[in-house]
Specification:
By secondary structure, the chain is of the alpha+beta class. The protein contains three helices and six strands; from the N terminus they run H-H-E-E-E-H-E-E-E.
């Protein structure tokens, strides 16, 4: 499954999200030179819901989507936009059939070792149910 491509498309096609980060949405890592703010998404785990008589028809994917910004206010604001775009999303995107995306919580992170004055991150956790066709 290419859930990353679907997440990228959902976020980049969402007008409020795109207004804040444009296309600065990356899987796993961003380059050092990327401008703030930006979004990074990571698959944390993927678990197939096995059946007795065939391949799994459903995968449960845990994904973290993080907003990075140079201020806490920006990271928090973009985190809210990410939640609005993804929470309870259903549909087919990039060939991925998404049964539902459920917001599960968030963490605040401050990295004082990065950037000239540190980096703020709002890290949101989602559980995604993907139907295998």
């Amino acid at each position: 499954m290419d859930i990353g491509k679907a997440i990228y498309n959902i976020l980049s096609e969402n007008v409020p999200v795109a207004a804040r980060v444009d296309t600065r949405i990356f899987p796993n890592v961003a380059t050092q030179s990327v401008a703030f703010p930006f979004i990074i998404y990571d698959v944390q785990s993927d678990s197939p819901e096995d059946t007795k008589d065939g391949v799994a028809n459903l995968d449960i994917t845990n994904m973290m989507v993080s907003a990075y910004a140079d201020t806490y206010l920006d990271a928090t604001s973009i985190g809210g936009l990410i939640r609005d775009a993804l929470d309870r999303y259903t549909g087919t995107n990039s060939g991925v059939v998404i049964n539902t995306i459920v917001f599960e919580g968030y963490n605040d992170v401050f990295d004082d070792m990065s950037g000239s004055e540190g980096i703020y991150r709002k890290s949101l956790d989602f559980k995604i149910r993907i139907i295998n066709t």
